[in-house]
Specification:
CATH architecture of the largest domain: 2-Layer Sandwich
Helix content: 55-70%
GO biological process, one term: type IV pilus-dependent motility
Protein name: Pilus assembly protein pilo
InterPro entries: PilO (IPR007445), Transl_elong_EF1B/ribsomal_bS6 (IPR014717)
Number of helices: 5
Organism: Ferriphaselus amnicola
Pfam family, one: PilO
Radius of gyration: 45 Å
Distance between the termini: 100 Å
């Protein structure tokens, strides 16, 4: 309250006669006004620049973290690709090439004969091209007892090359023997000439008419 009373009593035209407390208060007030005016007129641009730098820093940090995550994922993807390529290579070795198909068909036939089965039908159908592979369906019908047919199916699954039995139908024969109708499917990979011809045909099909 004393300072307030002194402020009311001072003469603004004679600041040299002001009490010491009023002088200190006035200097503090002037300093505060300078700060406020400086902030509004000069420092505001610097504050805006600093805020821009802070936003940019945050953005750059986010970009860095995103790139870091991508780099980690890229290493993981590369490892997965290597595993996939190795698995694909191992699978590819189980597929015969064109020159080995006849031997594979003979193996299928021998698997049945070796179990004492009678082949009533063994008819390879035209190949079906699917991507880089050719599927070879073979319509078969064999007759024999239950155990021999079961062993034949097991022998087919254990061939060194991939062969599957599909659309299996078992029927009872007149003599008590069982008959099995099925479609055996095996696959081979296309050779370079076939792949080149396939690409050429695809390119020609996609060409504008």
């Amino acid at each position: 309250m004393k300072l307030l009373d002194e402020l009311k009593a001072v003469n603004p035209k004679t600041p040299g006669e002001w009490p010491q407390s009023v002088k200190l208060f006035s200097l503090s007030l002037i300093f505060l006004l300078v700060l406020v005016v400086g902030a509004l007129l000069d420092w505001q641009g610097q504050w805006d620049t600093l805020s821009g730098y802070q936003v940019e820093e945050t953005t750059l940090k986010n970009v860095f973290l995103d790139k870091k995550r991508q780099a980690i994922n890229l290493d993981l993807i590369k490892k997965q690709m290597q595993v996939t390529e190795q698995s694909f290579g191992a699978l590819l070795k189980q597929l015969p090439n064109k020159s080995e198909m006849d031997a594979l068909l003979t193996d299928i036939n021998q698997a049945g004969l070796g179990r004492g089965l009678q082949f009533e039908l063994f008819r390879p159908a035209p190949e079906v091209i699917t991507g880089v592979f050719a599927e070879q369906p073979i319509a078969i019908r064999v007759t024999g007892d239950y155990d021999d047919i079961g062993h034949f199916a097991s022998d087919i699954s254990q061939l060194s090359r991939i062969v599957t039995l599909n659309d299996i139908a078992i029927s009872q024969g007149g003599s008590g023997a069982l008959g099995m109708d099925a479609t055996a499917k095996t696959y081979r990979y296309l050779d370079d000439a076939e792949l080149a011809a396939q690409k050429k045909a695809a390119k020609a099909a996609g060409a504008p008419k």
